[in-house]
Every structure is written in structure tokens, then in C-alpha cells.
Amino acid sequence: MKYTAPVADKNIRVDHADVVIVGAGAAGMTAAMAAADAFTQAGRKDAVVALVSKVYPVRSHTVAAEGGAAGVMSQEDSPAQHAADTVRAGAGLAHEDAVQFLVQNAPGELAWLERLGMPWSRDADGRPAVRPFGGMSQPRTWFAADKTGFHMMHTLFQTSLRFPGIRRYDEHTALDLVMDEADGSEVSPCHPSSVRTLSCDDGEGSSSDGIADSPMGKTVRGAVVYDHSTGCAVMIEAPSVVVATGGFARAWGVSTNAGICTGDGHGMAVRAGLGLRDMEMVQVHPTALAGTGLLITEAARGEGGVLRDKDGRRYLADYGLGPETPLRSPQARTMELGPRDALSQAFWKASRDGRTAEGDVVFLDLTHLPQEVLDERLPGIVSLAKKYAGVDARTEPIPVRPAAHYTMGGIVTTATGQVLDVHGTPVAGLFAAGECASTGVHGANRLGSNSLVETLVSGRACGEAAADPSRWGAGPNFSRHSAGSAGASQNLPATTLEARAAAIAKKWTDMRGQGTESPAEIRDELGQILDRHVGIYRDAEGLQAAAQALEALALRYANVHVKDISPLWNTNWTGVLELGNMLDSARCVVAAARARQESRGAHQRVDFPGTDPTPRHTIVTHDLACRPHMTLQEVPHA
Amino acid sequence: MPDHSCDARLVEPVSNANGGAVLSVTKGQNHGDTAPRSEAATVDATVRVTVLRQEPTTEASPQPREESWDVPFTETTTVLDALTWIKDHADPSLTFRWSCRSAVCGSCGVMVNGQARLGCETFVSGYATSGVRVTPMDHAEVQRDLAVDHSGFVEKMASLKPWMMPEPHQDVLAELASMHTQSPSQAAEYAHLSQCIGCGLCLAACPVLAEVSEFVGPAAIATAQRWDKDSRDSGAEQRFELMVDNEFGIWPCTQEMHCTRVCPQGVDPAATIIALQRNALTGM
Hints:
The complex is a heterodimer of chains A (638) and B (284). With 638 residues, chain A is of the alpha/beta class.
């Protein structure tokens, strides 16, 4: 199909904002409102918070979160216990300061949502109810039936409509961050076309050929986004940027994630020379609906659902999760309420032992639960099973199997979301919140219901900090100007920034009409490689095969075929951009997984079953050829 | 909304040389990754999928065209799977929205054989003999192919102030003690109204919107009522005025119930609108 030549002679414009937020799920939306509130309190009524989403905000993957959000609620519970559970799950990689920041602020954030109208499920006294959750020693998971994330997202979005200071950029795709080095020179993002022929020996340790950058701090200048309705790239210039783009577990073939969970923020960060931490830590959810990967919430087990093998036996007891608990009496951290990684590992072993049914599935049995529990607390699950598996969960067990679910690794930040470069120096004005960030909360494994509350806690922290340059010490290059003005900052005229943004955008838009490699084939092969080699259990041989296969895919991606050349609503092209981000993220995962020669949390090596006495982080950056470059870093302990 | 100052000139629509052509597809090919895996190897039938396509244009009279493909399917193949198959195997330029695959994100609304449906929960096996005709949602401006402009939907919803009133005071927001109590039965009052996923199917199905495009529509009214019926909110009077003292509020509704029939979440906007009309007329 041929279209006439693109669009405009001048296909870029520059917008000014006071804060740019990339991503409008729960983390981005919370950050936007927190920033807008901070500006209001500072008397800055003219301030503009630019909220960029590649979809309409309520399409964000937050809506798919089912089970709940953790926050200490009862007298029997305490933040110290919540912290201890979280640190234990993190298996040596969790940071005490980040965990404390989360658990101390969690109840307040959940109360804030309540005040905004969140329809929390209630106990008989009219207080928000809490349910038990895997790995949590106390019931502290607040929930809204089995659609907690859905209700959070809509409560946040509807509330955001009353904020005049939030300027939404719906259906704008973020292309790259624009950053300066400390000396004012530009950070030039890596691009797929710079992928070179490889000698695939990286990943087994550190060498010194990473991107050489200044130990002085970088400064963010804004983000380049693409407006599908006009075919314009837009440089949104701002003194601060919050990246809140979610995870990348869609890269796996068998995944609970929505199509949009493609690691766009991870890709932008690593292309801009920043480090990604603990990328090998990928949580595999033990119960996804067979055939579809759709999530069956852990709450189904919290409410008393049990897992059975093909013969109806509760196989978890045979793989270290016992002793078997009576039906309808779930016990914290035992059997079905063990940590997610332990349950997924038990599945792997049950499958090896021939205990899974046809299609490599086990069964989640809810048939013994009272009708009112299914109706009031798990209605979405009952409907999902009926619709997509033809199973009546009231009378039949649901066929389930593990699927890639949550990516613990991400952009390196402080406990409160300030992005750090590879030297540990803050990037002035750059923050990351939610799943895309590695704040140190989740460590090597995330407890269910910690991430949903993290979106609120870290979203607010990032939004408030982004709105207050005095808190992150804007350097001499920084000059604030009103978002409404057409002015430029003092040291870098807007034309320069516009030219830089135009060059970045052109690299991406030039992919249209080029190449020969099918993006659908690359995407399918990426999913298959990750499913096969980077799943519940890993070994050197598989990871090496994955590394070679992914480098080959990266070379093919450098010649990817974008048939559709339309500048408007070109989903062929945006799908290819998302594929690039998934591929960048996956290559970092494999590099990190090869380097971590031990078993810890979600990273289980058949060939290295033991855990090193000294926990270390993996940090992956891009080298000058845009290949993953690995270093190991000691875990800071407070 | 952003100020579109970049002087974009839209592409001229180009008639497609292969317009209307039927591409027959070899049976038994692999599905894309959204297709069900368990049965991908046993594909033995195809269904004719016809899509009404349209290029982005500023022209007053766009030129939609039909294209058809024979798409392999199984019992669990959805309309969304079929569209994805076409995009992966036949025409990468086919434009449609999707994300969650499980009827909660609201992205993939289309007309399937004239009925407003979510592509991800409509199975093509029910159309094996008739074929599937997929067209963009009615009563909305087509951006490209099956993607329609959704911004009016959001503006209409915002016009009825779907947020807690009065605005909660900043100082007490983070205090557990400041939370409202709400009994389970009070929560049940608005539970069904809070299920709206914003897919817009009710707008596509609403016959009134064919005549009165300014009508705020079923979703916005149902969402306003979600707040009105919430024991924690005191904005019902304000929203009532916005809906009643407004010729495009509740009054254009002719009570044909299409919105309720197509709602994938059982929200029942029609009952809500009818009750509001009665209330406004009788003060009951």
C-alpha cells in the first residue's frame, strides 16, 4: 500500500511544561495530581503538568490488577511486620530505606484513595476490608472485589479531570528522553540502526567498555513524543520528567500482561546511557488462565482456592510448601499462600514429574467456596473463566499455568524515585515511579499487592519532587520559565533543543517504509526465546542460547520492515517501536541473568542452586554499539 | 488538550489498488501471539472477515472501502485475534486499538455485523457461516480504519463532574481516621455503576446520538450517577442540574435501551437515565 509523502515540512513543535510525566497509569496519574497540588500550594497557578500516555489513560495496564494493595490497617499488624515480609521476599536485594518508605506511606495513600471515592470493599463496620495475600504475615491487602486496579485507575482518572493544571497528551508515543551531560553537551540516545555485528561474550562479568560518561550529573531537558493525530513529533521541554511507563513482561510469549506493557521507559533509559538494575528478576505468576495467559488473581487463593494436579492432589505439599492446610482455611505463607516464585517453581517440578494435565496445566479449584464469596469477592474471575475457558468455576476447577507477570528490575532510583546514573549521581530533574523503576522495594521478588500501593507512594513522591526544583538542586544551567511562554532557557536556545528533538524523532520516523524483516516474526520469536530459556528455572546453556538468539534478533530488528508509511495512526510503526523496547529490555534481562551465577528470589539457576553470601545487584547499560553491558554492584545496606 | 501548532498537512487519501480484494490464506498457519495457543496447531477452518477501512483525511467526504480476508480460527478465536492475524500476516497497516485482551481496558470496541461489541470477547466461531463484518464504532469520527476519536467521550464525562464533592481537604487525606465509613449495603448502591470501562459501546449503540451528537450519552450519565449514589459524595444536586437544566443532558434519551443491551459490564445506563427523567419531571 502506498501513501503520499509524509506530512509537513516542519514536523516538530516545542511545547513547554513545568513537569512532564510519561505514562498515565496509577503511578503517572498520581504523580500528575501530586505535582499539580504542589504547584497550587506554591501559588503557581500557571504551572503546567504535561501527562503523556500512549493510550487513553484508563486503558493503562493498572486496570488489570485484580487482587489488591497492601497497607497496614489493623492493630495486630505493624509497618515493621509489613517491612519484614517485604524484605524477606526481596531475598537480600531489597533496600531497607525503600521498603520503609513504602510501608510507612502505604496506609495513608490508601486512605487518600478512599477520600477520593475509591470503592474499597468494606467490612461489616463499614471500614475498608483487608484480605490475606501470598507472603504477607498478616491480612493487609485492601481490595475492591477482584478489580482493585480497575477501580483505582478510574477513581484516579476521574479525579484528575478536575485539575486544570494537568494537560493531557493522550495517544502520544514517547520516543526518547532528552538529556544533557554535566558540561552541557547532549546525551545522544542509542538507536537500533547502531546495532553492530556482535561478539557475543558480554554478560559474564564486567569489562570497561561501557559508555564513558562524566561522573558529574546529567540533566534532563524533556521528552520527545509523537502525536498520532497530527503526525507531529513534539519536544515537551521541562525542568523535570517523571517516567512511569510500567513493565515489560509482554515480551514473553506466555504473559499476563496487556499488549502495551512493552518497557518503553526501560528502553528510553538504557538508550540514554542510564543503568537498569536487577533486570533478570522477573516474576512468573503461578496462576494464569490456560491458553490465554489472562491473570487469575492470587486473591482467589487468599479467599480459599486450592491448586490440584491432574489427579486432584494438592501437589504444593510435595514441593516444600506444606503442610497441607484444610479447605477454606488458608494460612499465611503456606501452601497456596506461599510466595509466587515458590508456587511457580512447584509447578515446574510438578510438570517435570508428569503431574500436569494436557496442555501442561494444573487446576485452581474454587468449587468448595461459598456462592457469596464467588459473587462478592471473585466475580471477575468467575466471568473470565467462563468467557475464555468455557469453565464454570462454581462447579469445575479452572485450568491454570504460570505466566510472566511482573518485572522487578528497572531504572535505578533512590528510595523516593530520583533517577541515578551509573555512578550513583542523581540525574537532575529525572524521576521514575511504579513498575519501570527499581527503587529497591521489591528486591529479587515482589509480594503481591505491594506494587499497586507502590504506584501511589512512589507516584506522589516523584510528582512532588518534580514540582520543586529546590529539592533536587537545579544546576546553574537550569532556568525556570513559565510553561505558557515561548521563551528558551538561558544556555541552550530552544532552536537547539528543537533541532536535537527533530534529529531524535527523525531516527524513529525514518524507519517507516524501510527494512525487510517481519516485525510479527521477530516478536513471536522473542516470546518463544524468553519462554524457553528465561522462565522459572534457568541455566548457562539456555541463557547463552537466548543471548545469541536475541543478538541475532537485534540485528534483524535493525532492518525491520515497517510497511506502513502513514504519519497518522500508524500502529504498524508504533508496534515496531514497542518491539524495540521489549527487545532492548529482554537483552538486558539475559545479560543480567547470565551474570547472576546464583539462585535468588525470582532468578533460579539449575546450575547454580545456591545463594551467594554477599547479595549483589546487576546493572546493565548500553555500550557504544548499543549492546548490553553488565556490571555487578554491592547492595547498600542501611 | 495540547495545542496542535505543528503545521501538519494530512495525507491525501489514496484509493487502494487492491481495494476489495480477497486474500486467501493457507490453512494451518501459526497464529499471532494473541491467538490461543492450545489449539493453534489444529486450525482447520477459516472465516471470512470483512473490514470497513478508511484512511486519515481532512476531506469532508472520506472514502471508506471494504477489504476481506479468510482467517483461520478455532472455538476460542476472538474478533480481536482475527484482526491481529490480519495485521501480522496480511496487512500491517490495518489499524485498530487493543490492549488487555480481557474486557477490562475498553480499547477494542467495534461494530461486529452491526452490533457494538468488544473485539476481545466476541468469538468468531459464532459467525462461521455468515462471516464477520467489522466496522468502526457508530456515531464517532473515524481516525483510521477501526480507530475512532474518543476525546469527545472523555469531555462529555468530565462535563458532569465525576469526582468526589466536596473536594476532600488536603490536610486529612492521608489519615486513616479521616476515612469515611460505608456499609457494604451503601457500597452496593453504586457498585454496578462503577463498572463502566469507558469503552464507548453505549455511544455507538445509542440511536439518539445519530441525530443529536451533543447528547452527553449513557456512559457519562451512568458515571455521574455512580457518584450521586455514593454515600460519601454530596455533589448530586450539582450534577442533577448539569443533567436536567441542559437540553443535551438526560432529555434527548428516548428510552430505547440499546445502551444497556450492549454494555459489556452490565452497567444499565438506561435504567439510570429513565429514573433521572422521572425524577426531574415529578420531583420524586
